[in-house]
Design goal:
The protein is an alpha/beta fold and about 325 residues long. Helices cover about 30% and strands about 10% of the residues. The chain is built from 13 helices and 6 strands. Strands 1-3-2-4-6-5 form a 6-stranded mixed β-sheet, sandwiched between helices. The longest helix has 18 residues. The radius of gyration is 49 Å and the shape is elongated. It starts with 16 loop residues before the first helix and ends with a helix. The relative contact order is 0.09. It catalyses: Hydrolyzes single-stranded DNA or mismatched double-stranded DNA and polynucleotides, releasing free uracil. Keywords: 4Fe-4S, DNA damage, DNA repair, Hydrolase, Iron, Iron-sulfur, Metal-binding. It comes from Achromobacter marplatensis. Its EC number is 3.2.2.27. Belongs to the uracil-DNA glycosylase (UDG) superfamily. Type 4 (UDGa) family.
Length: about 325
């Protein structure tokens, strides 16, 4: 009597000739050597073949212990065990069916309750108050300054973060001078001293500007308000970038609308190009009167001249700057 065949192996193992004779003798050669179908192959690790006794030629095979039927042992009568009360059977909770965990793409299975769910999705867990806080939308500068008073405009300039210049400034320079004013003097951007003190034209350029204004009987304390197109100092006193000019220009235009100057003296190329909306050189803009039309429809005369910092580097141009000042002072 042969032992029952174990689970089919994925492939027949290699056997030596003596083992093949032994398998033939016990009638298991075909079953052992035939590979199992692909669908019935279990994922088991094949075990090493068990060495069988070598038989001499002509001898009958020895009786193997596994072929001997177990001896019949008379059953013993055991004393009845005391009855033990059993708890009521608990019905097992059926496990949630799963999608087969082995897929062609190797992804894990998904519970059927999720795949077969109907109706609206579950409500999300409410977030904490700090997670729900959303940054308030930033109001454009032109809209924020539309109805601002001069004091409100000053506060907005001090707290402005419309461009990257706010990251490196010490003070935003709003402007300084007489209110109401006769002349509005517009420069380009604060320098190192202006950034340190928070007032426009306080360095060597400011001293030269005060002397030029005094030569035509004007003073920043009683007649002139001085400001810049850019309210924060560019790093290293570099030229203002177009996006910085665009972000800061609404402050200047609101200052003009509130101060209502009789005339505007523009100092430097960037200031002139910003106010007049042109890319012409300062040499072609100076020496004549331009006009700036406000939102209220009022036209304000504009005179273009060199920046005092340029005059300090090029003293020979002071004569032309003096002509520009006289042109501005003769205007009614």
């Amino acid at each position: 009597m042969t032992a029952p065949i174990a689970a089919a192996r994925p492939a027949a193992p290699r056997v030596n000739p003596l083992q093949r004779i032994w398998l033939r003798e016990i009638g298991m050669e075909r079953l052992w050597m035939r590979p199992a179908p692909a669908a019935a192959r279990p994922a088991v690790v094949p075990q090493a073949p068990v060495s069988e006794p070598v038989l001499a030629p002509g001898l009958a095979p020895a009786v193997v212990a596994r072929d001997i039927a177990p001896a019949t042992v008379p059953p013993t009568v055991a004393s009845p065990a005391p009855a033990v009360p059993q708890a009521a059977p608990v019905s097992p909770v059926p496990a949630e069916p799963m999608v087969p965990t082995t897929r062609s793409n190797g992804r894990p299975g998904i519970p059927a309750s999720i795949l077969n769910r109907t109706g609206p999705p579950p409500r999300p867990v409410p977030k904490a108050a700090e997670d729900e806080a959303v940054e308030a939308p930033r109001i454009p500068v032109a809209q924020a300054v539309k109805n601002a008073t001069l004091d409100e405009l000053r506060e907005q300039v001090v707290a402005c973060t419309a461009c990257g210049l706010c990251d490196g400034r010490r003070h935003a320079v709003f402007g300084q001078g007489a209110t109401p004013t006769r002349w509005l003097v517009v420069g380009e951007a604060p320098g190192e001293q202006e950034d340190r003190q928070g007032h426009p034209f306080v360095g060597r350029s400011g001293q030269l500007l005060d002397a030029m204004l005094a030569a035509v009987g004007m003073s920043r304390e009683t007649d002139v308000f001085i400001t810049n197109v850019i309210k924060c100092r560019p790093p290293g006193n570099r030229n203002p970038k177009p996006e910085e000019i665009a972000a800061c220009s609404p402050y200047l235009m609101r200052q003009i609308a509130l101060l209502k100057p009789e005339r505007i003296l523009v100092l430097g190329r960037f200031a002139a190009q910003t106010l007049l909306g042109t890319d012409a050189t300062i040499g072609s803009l100076r020496g004549r009167v331009h006009a700036l039309k406000t939102d209220e429809g009022v036209e304000i005369p504009v005179i273009v001249s060199y920046h005092p910092a340029y005059l300090l580097r090029s003293p020979s141009e002071k004569a032309r700057a003096w002509q520009d000042l006289k042109l501005a002072s003769r205007m009614v």
